[in-house]
Amino acid sequence: KISIKATKQAILNYNKYLFDKYTFEQSIILNFLQEQNSAVINGAAGTGKTFVALERATQCAKNKEKVLYLCFNKNLCNILIENNSYPDFINFKTIHRLAAEKNAIKNNEDCDFNKLKDILIEEANNSNFEYKHIIIDEGQDFGREEFEETNIIQTLSDIMEKINGTFFIFYDKNQIIQSKNIPKYILDADSKITLYKNCRNTTNIAISSSMVIEKLKPSGIELKNELKPIISINKDKKIKQDMIDNAIKLLKEKLSNNIVILTCLPQMKKENSFLYKYTNADKYKGYPFFSVNVFKGLEADAIILIDIEKRHFVNEIDKLTYYTGTSRARYGLVCICNLDEKDCSDILDFYNKKYNKKTKRSIKTIFAENFNFEIF
Q1: Which helix (H) or strand (E) holds 254?
Q2: Which of 177, 80, 72, 162 is nearest to 120 (CA)?
Q3: Distances (CA, A) of 235 to 36, 71, 281, 304, 339
Q4: What pTM was computed for the model?
């Protein structure tokens, strides 16, 4: 009797095939976009917004029409540039990079978006605007005050209408962690297209990610023998570091070496993370360490999310950091929470859950039973 066991890499390759298959299914929306001059496309994390945006840009490039693809996240932009198959026709830029290239900067080198708007309008009026299409990814991040005051999104849309081009903006209202408000342009849109099918996360990760977002119905790809998300609760720095070490070992063994560690702390406060002083140690080399807001728009086979505090479960704004961070994970997710007994009881009270004196045990039970979390 011969027993054949699939290797970890074979399983990973098959899982990636399933995800690519579902991603391809999202492309049906392109049939609609081909007939439109403008559209606002909404979708939760992992629903294929960037995929659809890139496919649309590629279609235009194949027709030898220039595309300006704008996003907010510098790291996302750099990856898109590195993988650009049509550099002569698709220009990936952050809005700040566009402003710098147009010399729309102040003396202190901050971007002057009023000046940028004037430059772009002048180019359009003089028939010097080089792009036939504009695509904005991460549209929710363009609700920052400096963009709204200058009405830069509406200006770009007006320019496309003037030159008979196309204008598409993709966004997720639940990933609004770089600004305080959804852009007025999006709010005022007559109609929005919504992508529903999650084509990035496993089902369990999708459930775990969306648990803090009210009325968000999770969907994901159901895989055989998928690793359920893991949650750990402790305030002791040494124990939490051991948890990270064990998580890396487990994820490498079960899934992949493509592991990213994310902190829920803002980028400028990343050094306040308990892990920061250890990140240069040999055992963490090869495992990038970012804040959630810097890694937004990107993804990895496995995510270890650390510095999760009570506010990430009860505060409406901070919940979005948890949601954005956990939804970066494709196949594996480990959450390490900085909670004590009082924090746990406050969270249980917030969600109107009953508990006994051992609140940590109670909250772990809730995570495990209601949100498909395992206890690590």
Answers
A1: helix 237-254
A2: 162
A3: 53, 36, 22, 16, 6
A4: 0.81
